Amino acid sequence: MPPDHDMPFDQPMKKPFLSLLMLAALAAAGCAGEASKVVAEAAGMATTAQEPKAFVQETRPANAEYMPIGRTFPVEPLCKGEAAPPPFVPAGQAAHFIYAPTAAPKPGECKPRAAFKKIEAELDAKRLSNEAAGTQAKSLGSTPPPKPAQLPTN
């Protein structure tokens, strides 16, 4: 008498697969609770957050709600020179914000133009050295590749 189905092991394989799938779904749904976290920690699959080191606690601000990014530097406007600077007229996106012109700096609060010229000269010298280094690197990088090694023939 022929069997009812083609493969005798086809039907029993579906039941363990479905039950395994249901078990995985229940495990995934149970991960949301606190009790499952304890079980996951005991199994080594989850960890608890440790207290930060002392240097981290010292550098954190007391109010963690807002942490400023970057640093602010005091603005030292240039002292008046021979030519007056052009007036600032907000345009583009800056025109949408309120602009309060700053008062003229008092003597001693402005950066002398000579210091500005010195910084400008240093930056120009650095730019020239960087361009020279780039030109040298470009010339070294344009050498032709070596010829492949030739095997001796006996």
List the helices and strands and how they pair.
Elements: H1 10-30, H2 34-43, H3 54-59, H4 113-141
Task: Write a brief structural summary.
The protein has 154 residues and is mostly helical. It is 43% helix and 0% strand.
Describe what you observe in this structure.
This protein is mainly α. It is built from four helices and no strands. The radius of gyration is 36 Å and the shape is flat. The mean pLDDT is 75.
Tell me, briefly, the overall form.
flat
Could you give the distance between the termini?
76 Å
Tally of helical runs = 4
Q: Gyration radius, to the nearest Å?
A: 36 Å
Report the structural category: mainly alpha
> Mean of the pLDDT scores?
75
Strand tally is 0
What is the string of helix and strand elements?
HHHH
Q: Residue share in helices?
A: 40-55%
Strand content: under 5%
Specify the biggest β-sheet.
Answer: none
Low-confidence stretches: none
